Amino acid sequence: MTAQRIIAAVAVIAMVGVATPAAAHDETPHRPTGLAPATSANLRLVGHVNPGPVANADVYGYRGHAYLASFVGNNCNSSGIRVYSLWNPARPKHVATFADKASEPDLAGTWTEKVIVQRVDTARFHGVLAVVTFQTCDSTDDTTFRGFGLYDVTNPAKPKALSRYAAPGTRGSHEIWLGADAGHAYVYAAVLRSEWTSSPTYDRATNTATTPGRADFRIVDVADPRHPVDAGEWGAWKELGVVPVANPAHPYEGFQSFTHSVRVDTRLRRAYLSNWDLGTVILDVSDARHPRYLGRTTPEQGSTHSAAIDPTGRFLIETHERLGGIPMIYDVSDPARPRELAHLTKDGQEETSVHDPKLRGSLAYFSWYEHGVVVADVSKAWAPRVIGQFLSTDTTPNPDFCDFEGGCVEVWGVFVLGDLILASDMNSGLYVLRLKR
Q: Alpha carbon of 407 to those of 51, 120, 245, 422: distances in Å?
């Protein structure tokens, strides 16, 4: 089976929701093509830990710790978030696990692919807060929890569950952001296809709906993280008249609009919604109760997956999760008229897909599935260039994800923590790297 057919097959499972573990992303393990360049000399492996036969998802770094999320995998292990101390980055040490079925048995049947960790100081909470997405492995089982959870990780070795936010009628919160500023704290949730599947007119048998349900993008006030409260929401169907699925009988043969990911600036004024084939939607969220549409990108490639924004709010990096998907760079200083500046291309890109971007100074860091971690110089935004690449070194077969002989490289997440680069491989766990310049 070709990579393109594998992607299409898994996408149908994710959309329709059969009574088997449903994948969140369009990427499944397949044998290396040989087109990915080798690891470059300027990216050095510092440390690595393989947590065992569990499918891994994103990674987030905060104050000397790495938070490794988990994917649905082949077995829906509900493995939660694994926390590793990086006091000695050459030997990451596992110090805690939370949001898993072992510590919270009613979370069996969920997976936790995204975690965000931030310092939060409000009238009701002072400490470090983690927000974790929960999605149901079987979207036909309406009894499984779906939404997100809030945890006190002020002591990362002793996480404390604080509360949950439920999103009934959906698969759960797919990706998420946590923002805190000036005594306020909000979770910005991307609840995948909520406008469609939570509609009062939604028919699961035919995958049809005629009126919008609750919005895909939700803003939840977590100033008191023990009691999250809805603040505002925005949906492209209700606000722009964009129907989420062009062809419900064959949903992957036409246009799709849903909020896959969200990123918010540090002052909590603008949100950047990766809205799949609609592009990146830019909202004014300075009034959390009333998000306001400003504009959107119109990329040549669909499947707009995620974004990174520079601190000035001028430059946006947008990634596209599809076969041959690449990053695009925009000038969004006028959000009503985003201007495309450049594409970032690389050898062998046709055989895989870029995934997530991160931006630190003049360097952009990408998780690029089979191509591992890719680093690009974007100091000239109109002429980005690849300057480094790292391929995962542990190809041990993983029965929960990549179980064929020789293993595989599937880097999901990347994060910059001080002078360290953290990477998560779906098959082989956490990698700690350094870039030599």
A: 15, 40, 36, 21
